[in-house]
Specification:
CATH class of the largest domain: Alpha Beta
CATH topology of the largest domain: Aspartate Aminotransferase, domain 2
CATH superfamily of the largest domain: Type I PLP-dependent aspartate aminotransferase-like (Major domain)
Order of helices and strands: HEHHEHEHEHEEEHEEEHHHHEHEEEHH
Distance between the termini: 60 Å
Largest sheet: 7 strands, mixed
Strand content: 5-15%
Number of strands: 14
Bound molecules: pyridoxal-5'-phosphate
CATH architecture of the largest domain: 3-Layer(aba) Sandwich
Number of domains: 2
Helix content: 40-55%
Structural class: alpha/beta
């Protein structure tokens, strides 16, 4: 190791990313800013078949199941190589049988992606598309299930990361089981910071990935599934490599992943899981993110920015802000100015009005969030933006959230 490298590591060992060195904070919902300990855990190599790595896999599975609360003993954890979308596809292919039918509750990009995945799988799907951000409500789920007895499963997106909305999975779960169907949850961007305990919110399986609220690096996802569902899922999957049942069987028998595992990402994730526990688990992680969100929103509102969502629907994961109507504002310029100050932000995904997003997850606290607001303030001044207020259409758009569930559009 050269002197410079050693020196740099010594500095970074006790510090967060240093924008002076060109490493920005990622205000994005995964990949996100990880701790030095997580990065450091990747500085050695592991044999995938070796006992040490098998023990790491076993510990990872056990620690994830332990996050499920009282009913955890009925659940199994199966990690799966690839990004989050791979494990969504694996869950749908493994748990929705070939003759099953899935109701997808969509209010953004990830719900629509799940419906598209069902198209690829050639399996039946009913899409409830609520548009950019309106929440799917329990009542309408109940109506759809009553009208279509062929539906066997419901897929809910826990936090729809494209707007940041926290969907009401509690009432969705109640409506699903009241109708005798089964719930699958994409809790990708929520798991680890927002509780999903099966004795409180019933479900059969959920998926999440390494680079979201547990604060690991990208490389794999995982499913937490009821053992009885896993046992019943043999032969369902359309894909050899995405077969959760087969991966589970192999892990039970050999302690190994079936195909090459992302060893370094697994090592990093274990370090992240330990830090998650030390921080105080899901409750403490959620509180830190909520404080991040509240600090961010209070500061941004003071600058004149408005959020897409009413406070009631805001998740502690990511927040969508409307772009200012002021002609001096340009998102690309704003992005560059924020990056110059050490912060990577995220473009918006709304179809109706311009927006951008700022993530609250990762190795960040309220001190950092205050710096984000200061950077936003400076960026506006540098652009010559006088007011950060959004266009009138943006606020009209937000009014839609106040409408009653039975006035919200349904399509299939
Ligand atoms: C991140 C995310 C995914 C998976 O996205 P990848 O880019 O494949 O990792 C799926 N659903 C939600 C809600 C997400 O936030």
């Amino acid at each position: 190791m050269t002197a410079t490298v050693a020196n740099e590591l010594a500095i970074k060992a006790n510090s967060l990313p240093d924008p002076e060195k060109g490493e920005p904070f990622l205000l994005t919902p995964g990949p996100l800013t990880t701790s030095y300990a997580v990065k450091q855990a990747m500085l050695r190599d592991w044999g995938s078949w070796d006992g040490d790595f098998r023990a790491m896999t076993a510990e990872l599975r056990r620690r994830l199941v332990d996050l499920l609360g009282n009913e955890r003993k009925a659940f199994e954890c199966v990690p799966m190589q690839g990004s989050g979308s791979y494990v969504v596809e694996a869950m749908l292919g493994t748990f929705v049988p070939k003759d099953g039918k899935l109701l997808v509750l969509a209010n953004g990009a990830y719900g629509l992606r799940a419906a598209k995945t069902m198209d690829y799988l050639g399996r039946a799907c009913h899409l409830l598309d609520k548009g950019d951000y309106l929440p799917p409500r329990g009542e309408e789920v109940g109506q759809i299930l009553a009208a279509d007895p062929a539906i066997t499963h419901v897929l809910a997106i826990h936090c729809e990361t494209s707007s940041g909305i926290l969907n009401p999975i509690d009432e969705i779960s109640k409506a699903t089981y009241a109708a005798g169907r089964k719930l699958l949850i994409d809790s990708m961007s929520a798991f680890g910071a927002i509780p999903v305990e099966p004795d409180k919110i019933r479900f059969e399986a959920l998926v999440s990935s390494a680079n979201k609220c547990i604060e690991g690096v990208p490389g794999f996802g995982f499913v937490l599934a009821r053992r009885s569902e896993l046992e019943a899922s043999a032969g369902n999957c359309h894909s050899l490599s995405l077969d959760i049942h087969a991966q589970w069987q192999a892990m039970e028998e050999t302690g190994q992943w079936r195909f090459t595992p992302p060893t370094h990402a697994v090592a990093a994730f274990l370090a992240a899981l330990k830090a998650h526990e030390v921080e105080g688990g899901i409750a403490a992680r959620g509180e830190r993110y909520e404080a991040n969100r509240d600090t961010l929103i209070a500061g941004m509102r003071q600058l004149g920015f408005e959020t897409l969502l009413d406070d009631r629907w805001l998740s502690p994961i990511i927040v969508t802000f409307f772009c200012p109507v002021d002609g001096a504002f340009s998102f690309d310029r704003f992005y560059d100015l924020m990056k110059d100050q050490g912060f990577i932000i995220y473009p918006g995904k709304l179809t109706v009005v311009d927006s951008f997003r700022i993530g609250c997850i990762g190795q960040m606290d309220t001190t950092i969030m205050r710096r984000v607001v200061t950077a936003a303030d400076l960026s506006l001044k540098q652009m010559g933006v006088v007011s950060a207020a959004p266009p009138r259409e943006a606020l009209q758009e937000r009014q839609k959230l106040q409408s009653r569930p039975d006035e919200m559009g349904m399509t299939s």
